[in-house]
Design brief:
7 helices; 10 strands
Length: 241
């Protein structure tokens, strides 16, 4: 079994994988990331551990990770080689890149629009040959709520509602409606630019917004981890007999 670790902006996601197939998944939010990883490897040593991180893994952390597995693949700003075979620009964050690897695999021969709805809202395009065409980044849902509160002296901090009134009929519901409706209109606009594309939602808010869309949507919540499983499996086939 291989172990996949995705260290993001606000949380850590992990999963065991057998080849390209994901097994049990885990989520951690806190400062003790190395201790969390150690808790996963204490009882079972992975053949390959693939760690993707938005920040640079320190030399000390790398030694700890190497001691916890037989083979280690790092994907962070200082280690980018593992992505070079996949033709993905190096300016993309590694979670976005691994999601695109998975989208190519799941929807081979189809052009895709991939939405990642989390701390940020990212939109990426693949053509039918799997070639990356570019993408956009904007604020995610909760980030928009926080920005309204932070940069306006009079607006309260609100959270995602179970249902947003349209239009809002109070200060709170107006904020809820403005943010939720704004994201839905934004997504609709992207979909209309390439209506023939397969539309894929991933990220923490994927299900929330998929339920509110009129279009046909594929929701793959662990798309990034699935991409890491594919990258790891390719590494095993090429390098480990």
């Amino acid at each position: 079994m291989n172990l996949l670790i995705e260290i993001g902006n606000t949380a850590v996601k992990a999963a065991w994988a057998d080849g390209s197939v994901l097994g049990k998944t885990f989520r951690y939010q806190g400062e003790k990331v190395m201790q969390f990883i150690a808790s996963l490897t204490d009882k079972q040593v992975p053949l390959v551990m693939t760690v993707v991180s938005a920040r640079v893994i320190s030399a000390e952390e790398q030694k700890l990770l190497e001691a916890a597995c037989q083979y280690l693949i790092l994907l962070d700003p200082a280690h980018q080689d593992a992505l070079s075979p996949y033709g993905i620009p190096d300016y993309l964050s590694y979670d976005r890149a691994s999601s695109l690897v998975a989208a190519r695999y799941l929807f081979k021969g189809k052009s895709c629009t991939v939405f990642d709805l989390g701390t940020t809202l990212t939109v990426d395009y693949l053509d039918s040959s799997g070639r990356y065409l570019g993408g956009n980044i904007s604020l995610g849902c909760r980030t928009r709520f926080k920005a309204l509160n932070r940069y306006s002296k009079s607006l309260p901090l609100v959270d995602m509602p179970s249902e947003a009134k349209f239009p809002g009929d109070s200060q709170t519901s107006s904020i809820e409606s403005g943010v939720i409706s704004g994201i839905i209109f934004e997504i609709d606009g992207y979909i209309r630019t390439n209506p023939e594309n397969i539309v894929i939602f991933t990220g923490g808010d994927a299900i929330y917004f998929a339920k509110r869309m009129k279009n046909s949507i594929f929701v793959v919540c662990n798309l990034g981890l699935m991409g890491l499983a594919i990258i790891t499996d390719d590494y095993v086939k090429k390098n480990i007999q």
